[in-house]
User: What shape does this take?
Amino acid sequence: MWFRYALLALISMVFVACSAITTTPTASEAPKGASPSPTPSGSATASAPINGELVVYSGRSEALIKPVLDAFQAQHPEVKILLRAGSNSELANALIEEQANPQADVFITTELFTIQALAQEGVLQSYLPPGADQWPAEFIGPDQMWVGLTRRARVILYNTDQVSPEEAPTSIFELTDPKWKGQIAATGSTNGSMQAQIAVMRQLIGEEATKEWLQGLIANQTTFFGGHTDVRKAVGAGEFKLGLVNHYYYHLQKDEGSPVGVVYPDQGENQIGLITNATAAAIVKGARNLAAAQALVDFLVSSEGQRLFAERNYEYPIRAGVPLREGVLPLEQVRLAEVNVSAAAAEFDAVFQLIEEVGLP
Amino acid sequence: MARTIPVSARISQAPARATSLRLMVAAGLVALFVSIPLVYLFVRAAGADPADWQRLLQARLWKLLGNTLTLALLVTSGTTLLGVSLAWFTERTDLPGRKLLRWMLAMPLAIPTYLGAIVHLALMRPRGGLIPQGVEALLGVSLPLPSPLGLAGSVFVLTFFMYPYVYLLSGAAFRSQHAVFEEAARTLGRTPWQTFWQVTLPMLRPGVLAGALLVALDVLAEYGTVALLRYETFSSAIFVQLAGRYDRSAASILSGVLVGLAMLLLWAELRLQGEARSTQMESAWRPAPPIALGVWKGPALLFVLGVTAISLLVPLGVLSAWSVQALLDLPTLSQVVRTGSQGMVHFVWNSLWTSLLAALAAMTLALPVARFSVRYPGRLSHLLARVCQVGYALPGVVIALSLVLLINRFLPFLYATPVPILMAYVLRHMPQAVRAAESALGRLSASLEEAARTLGRTSLLALIQVTLPLVLPGLLAGGALVFLTSLKELPATLLLRPAGFDTLAVRVWVWASEGFYVQAAPAALILVLASALPLSFLLRREPLFR
Assistant: This one.
């Protein structure tokens, strides 16, 4: 106890000077979610006027969420968006840590396990945006704790100068074939999409086979990067023949004029099917700016928000009627792997254990 | 006369004791503040579930320990070798352009090591790097170059960006050596070679060792480079644990072990401190005559220039080229100038004010501790000064971890403000401020203050009117060092920053780790330039650069 007071005393003493500064624009101490002011926001989608600071934690990397937030901002100039982008698990940790003292209003992830684990921890609050009745049931979280935004496919990217379409592997299990030794790039254990892929594979083929696959990748001298942009650029430049990425990285790299091709793997009779992820958004329990948080989620699932994801980033929108960007292979033409996120928290613990055991970088 | 002395002593003793009590309390509070995160961390680590300990002991701990120690050992040896030989060339030989070379050899301190790693990766990546591609274009075949990643890459990068610590300290030691010692050895029949090994080097030892231990402590704390080059050490493993797992006990355990390790090094370093300080210039000092390099002049110059090229010129060149590229490309430029909920101006500003405030706070806090230990030397004052050195043994990730835990628990209102970042900077860089204050106060005669007191000033007034103006340059040097290292700090800032709060270091790191090197370059360049200013101020104070 004594040191608690000593600490308090000291900190208040030493940092009195800082507190003056922490209330400048960067501070989150500033009053948030101030009672709705009568100023109309001029937005067509929001009924209540919204303003104040809106804190968004995003597992989608900055480059992939920024354009959408900008569009939202344009509709709601009164709102000041504070973005914290990081890995899904890092932000999930922060949200759990902050449970008694919530900081974030909206949480956005790149896969469903993390967000479902958070829902089970009681970190989120339920919210069903208007128009979600058109959403497939699998993209609304249990108790409406989260709502899916887009889907992505886990695909194999290859350099067409070095690999012909016939040579390209048609299954992710071929990536452990020694003939690709030292020629594969992927993302490492801190990447949410990779974590989710491991979680799905655990469900599909079991712990042991997944472990073998990971060990195979490592034994094959796969280079694990921190993010997918490195992977796609490396494959585009011919540094690596193959890359394990989300499908839109193929399109992004192709846009840069690189000689790249794509395989939607594991389509054969006895194969596991294409592994997909969904990105999702949720409102944090205790969100200080609920009105703005709801408006943002509404925007993300609106036709306009969905169109932005599809257009800017080649993702699969979930809202029916929003067209795919030209050149994106419709998922209806692909056999998909089954994913079950209901026991997400336990699932993810097992995934981290597995990552640690095989020593995935 | 004989009678008046004890009387006056009694007179001056009474207020002195009172001051000492007030000072003692102030110094004690500072030491308490500094040691709380450490104590809390050890409590958490010790209180962790034995099952967690078991799991870590079985799977990770030994590997991490091996990795971390190997890296620390190799980088320390590398920097020692490099630093001492460079210092010998610039201080003891007739190498041309020594004055300029000294600056160029010290300047890498302005480049954060992770920037070095980013450039290193861009140049050396197998197949895709500029150097392998250049070799291929030149020779027509792709040569199997060593992997830029892992242990080898990390040792390379860290050695070339950390050697200045050893270089500066051993340079100063070379400089302060009396010519007489070597002359005596020579007259006693030793060859120049024997003299070097038997006389010159042993006299350098305290300075070199102190530098080497600082390097070792920095290696233990290093996060950016090892994360980027994918070599797993305690620091990077703790970071992954913090970012990845939903429980904190594993991170606490790893941190406990890491800090234990660092404390050992710090203890050794503190012991050497006293010795190193004894190598001071005296009035009869006369420099040893420079050794004529003769035909070796060319190769020696090539060696020194090669080191500067790797650690300064190439990184700056690459960053500049990228920056130009970024400025010429409109979409990238718009990303650079305006990103997140804030633009470039904002995170430059954030970097500056947090570092500046941390420097001010560290200087203020260091003053009572240093004053107490210098003016009232004794076991307690010594202990308190030692406790304030603990920041050297607290890597950024560890400070972040304990601050997150502590603040959430006891000071939730400070959470998600920039205050924890400031606290982390102060805690981590306090030792530099304390050392600077101690050395500045140590050089000041206590009689000056006593004179002010006899003239009727209170002790506080004496401090403000007499002591402070005289020690200010020394204090400012400590502050500049705190500012410089806070500016470069990465892991704690990454872990503690509130939403929308970016600093230069964070921005550079976020962009670079997502693969947008060109976008990161302008901010990186600004970071280097902003660090170069306090660094050159610091270097100008050194006898070596006068």
